[in-house]
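Course assignment 3, question 2. Fill in each field.
Student: A.L.
Task: Predict the tertiary structure for the chain below.
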Amino acid sequence: MNESQYEGPRRIRLEEAHSGGELFEICFGENLTDAIAEAQPTRRGGWYVIVHHGKVVSQLGLSHSEVVVYGSRLRIGSVGGVSTHSDYRGQGLAGRLLAHGAAQLAQEGARLMLISGERGLYTRTGNTPAMRFNTFSLKVPLSAPIICPRVAIRPLQASDLSGCARLYQAEPVHFVRRVEDFQDALGHQRGWGVMQGGELRAYFLWRTPWEFMDAPERGVREVTEYAGSRLALAEGLRQVLAGEASQPSPLRELRLAIPWQDFDLFRLLESVHQAAGAGTLPDHTMRLINFPALRQDLANYIAARLPISLRRGLRFEQSGPLLVDPWLGEAGEGRMAITWQGGRQSAERFELSSAEMTRLVMGSSEQAGDGAPPPAKGALGEVVSALFPLPSFLVGINYC
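Answer field:
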């Protein structure tokens, strides 16, 4: 087909929202016409499309968010809803959209691109599974001693929304949200409140994993977000696994991914359940897209971890394409470097591919495939070990 007959990649037009909604329904089983229309016009993010003879044949959605990391803010550009009509696949349309989306997100201020999905297109273009999690797969029924007395668990209610927001905001690593963001969440994910003394001490959300969407009756669920007292959380999870909480359908397996820095919850669960595995952020791939600007965003985080002798002269650098050209493979990969100028006679440089630097900065596990990046040496070895990996986080209700 003649490529000149295509329009795009470009932002979707209001009159094309219905066509975009139909394509989303074909690919994902849900019509998003209203949501796509409501997103236009927008200053940042939105839906981008490739159109053929007035019909949306490939599209993706972009959005922006921020994660508070121990007082600094990490600016994230999320990509979701990547879809191409079956009659137009194999022509590189989604790849063109993804490259355009990465450039658009970087231009709009994102430092990290976070993609909902793990398909081959994403890894071929240099995105990578990343972050570090301890993973549990807990079978039901589970017999374990009481972890925290006088704790009760019940489904979350509308009156709990402000309490959930306060608990989440108190987490040292969290997305910047509004209370209203929790209202939509309860319509898509089941939530549990952990009560003690009549007060909400913790909560967690779960959903059916993607591979079981067509068979929810099999009773497999995964925790997508949690916040609050770790003792209360561990006891609430114990009660659910022990069958002490009433549920509309039987639970047979509960999966959890716990960020590596959440040592307390990890130890509580490990002590009463079973050994944990290792994993990356479930159902996502990612890539740093503005490494130099990340240095500025993390200024407070860096100041709390490095003495001024190492902070002064520290730079993050980036060169080459934002994404890998699938036709060029590794030859088309970008490069990122951490440099330090300690004086006239002291200069160090630590350079990796963009994908390797993403895994170094965001964290990785043995399941990431390529293993850990090589360690830096000298002063930069101190810098890297003090700063990275950044703390990991679950996406939860910010899933794009």
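Instructor remarks: The chain has a mean pLDDT of 90. Residues 315 and 339 are 5 Å apart (CA to CA).
Grade: pending
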